[in-house]
Amino acid sequence: MFVLIKRIFITGWHGITRDGGMITANIFIMTMAIFMISSLFFFRDLSAFLVANIQERADVSVYFKNDAIEEDILKVKREVGSIPEVKEVNYISSEEAFERFIERHSSNPVLMESLAEVGTNPFLASLGVKAFEADQYAGVVGFLENFQFNYLIEKIDYYERKPVIERIYGLTAAFSRVGVIVSVILILVAVMITFNAVRISIYNSREEIKIQRLVGASNLFIKGPFLVQGAISGFFSALICFLFFALLAWGLDTRAEFLFPGFGLLSFFIANLWMILSIQILSGIGLGVVSSFIAVKKYLKV
Amino acid sequence: MITFQNVSKVYHPNIIALENASFQIVPKEFVCLVGKSGAGKTTLLKLLLAEEKPSQGQVFFNEQNIGNIKMDHLPVLRRQIGAVFQDYKLLNFKTVYENIAYAMEVIGASDAEIKRDMPEILDVVGLSHKTSSFPIELSGGEKQRVAIARALIHRPKVILADEPTGNLDPYHTLDIIRLLLKINEFGTTIILSTHNREVINSLGKRVITLQEGKIIRDEKQGRFIL
Fold first, then answer.
1. pLDDT score of A302
2. B103, A215: Cβ pair inside 8 Å?
3. How many other CB atoms sit within 10 Å of the CB of residue A100?
4. CB A132 within 8 A of CB A172
5. Tens digits of per-residue pLDDT, A70-96?
């Protein structure tokens, strides 16, 4: 068995070194396919980042009456935070809300003058409540409306914000769906491209396969070298693709940061280095071996 | 050793390549198949290599019915038969040495056995000085000698030679025929298919003559008569 495996590997390697043109073409095609598959990994993370970023903007604010004391509001915060549907609760005191307003609108003299005319802090303390899903907000709001500390609450802005929240969740859900569809299409295209490239190269070897059959070679002895060639081509394609990705991550890091603030392309690449390399090598070898296996099978019926 | 019993081969839609052929070949025989192009010589050899299945009748090799052979058993059958073709059928990306050694590799011979047998066979076919050459670097005669060496090295019981001199000049033709005779003297059965009149007439061996798929003559020491 060891002799058989050794011969299969030597024959496969000879196929690569002696028929360079065809292997180069295969490696080129497979590099593109692996590039597509690896891009999905980036795309998945980027889309998750964008979805999370957008969903961050969807929340419900619970405003407390002027005379509500902070201790009671924090009790409400703890109670609301313990609801399983609630993702996050943030307390904003009336002073903090006042400061934020000034910070945000200091360049607007009309607003600043109006605020000065009021003379006191007109802002109410509030809790910013974020749920996991859009349809969970109604339940959370229902809980607050029938809550024992309900008398402390001045207003809940859920009904004004409901359409916006639903639209945000709708959009992000659609975005995720499109992401899945695009991913499936890209994977299918990558597999089809590779399979056809390998099939064409093995089609050119059909006469050779026929000769091997006539000499009395077993299926494994014929198939083996093609599988080895597929695996080696896939491995080299993966390495080329990895280098290409490294260059892209390095070169586009600043631009990506500009387009998607908070998303570091290079830091993402470095943090997921082994994962990316594993995906590329596994998909490369997998594509090469499976495509070769299917393509050779067709010519073994002599 | 080889028996054809009322064998016919019909290709779609209605092309009769071989019709009701019956004959036997015993071990160590040298048999010539003659006939014009399309007479059925190659079909007969293809049936023996199980490249084709008979439409009717039975083909036996060492009492094994080749027509019923399973795909898994094909390699085992073919390892007992050495085949030489008009178009050489060499593996283009392998050297002379690798092409010949391939026939031993497929039967699972060890590297030591291959190293032991190769010099002898290279000497027999006169290619000791060309071991590292690729088929594209060889002449027609040299290619055919590689093909014969490959067919011979694993000591098959029978060698099928399908028009082995078809692409060769008279000098190389004689060379190849001498080689086949030598192999036959060592005890290997030879089935030579050719339409070369001079070759057949000079051999004085058994001749099976085919015409339009039918065996019209089978003589112990035959001549080329068509």
1. 60
2. yes
3. 12
4. no
5. 888 888 888 888 888 888 899 999 889
Contact: A14, B51; criterion CB under 8 Å: no
pLDDT higher than 90, residue A57: no
Which H helix or E strand runs over A60?
strand A60-64
Contacts of A19 in chain B (CB under 8 A): 93
Inter-chain CB pairs, A–B, below 8 Å = 55
Kindly report, residue by residue over A85-132, the tens digit of the pLDDT: 888 899 999 889 888 888 888 888 888 888 888 888 888 999 988 888
Sign of the alpha-carbon torsion through B48, B52, B56, B58: positive
Question: What's the token pair of residue B84?
Answer: 């030489």
Phi, psi (rounded to 5 degrees) for A153: -85, 130
Model confidence at B121: pLDDT above 80: yes
Query: What ipTM, to 2 d.p.?
Result: 0.85
Tell me the C-alpha distance between A31 and A44, whole Å: 20
Per-range mean pLDDT, top range of A147-156, A263-272, B113-122: B113-122
Q: Which residues of B touch A (CB under 8 A)?
A: 49, 51, 71, 74-79, 81, 83, 89-94, 98, 102-103, 105-108, 110-111, 150
Cross-chain residue pair A214–B103, CB shorter than 8 Å: no
Distance between CA atoms of residues B76 and B80, nearest Å? 7
- Going by their DSSP bridges, the two strands B30-34 and B189-194 should be labelled as parallel
Q: Is B160 within 8 Å of B84 (Cβ atoms)?
A: yes
For an interface test with A, give the residue of B74, B81, B88 to mutate (most A CBs within 10 A). Answer: B74
Residue appearing with tokens 């390699």: B75
DSSP assignment of B197-215 equals HHHHHHH--EEEEEETTEE
Is residue A218 within 8 Å of A227, Cβ to Cβ? no
**In this predicted structure, what is the pLDDT of residue B215?**
94
pTM, whole model, 2 decimals? 0.71
Task: Please report which residue ranges of chain A form alpha helices under DSSP H.
Answer: 2-18, 20-55, 70-81, 94-105, 109-118, 137-145, 158-203, 206-215, 219-259, 265-271, 273-297
pLDDT exceeds 90 at position B167? no
Measured CA to CA, the distance from residue B63 to residue B76 in angstroms comes to 14
Using alpha carbons, list the distances in angstroms from residue A145 to A70, A130, A155, A158, A298: 19, 16, 10, 11, 70
The backbone region for B63, taken as left when phi is positive above 0, alpha when psi lies in -120 to 50, beta otherwise, is left
Length of chain B: 226
**Rg from Cα positions in chain A:** 31
Q: From the list B71, B111, B150, which residue is nearest A215 (CB)?
A: B150
Q: Are A33 and A286 in contact (CB under 8 A)?
A: no
- Pair B152, B180: CB distance under 8 Å: no
Distance from CA of B153 to the nearest CA of A (A): 11
Q: How many CB atoms lie within 10 A of CB B53?
A: 13
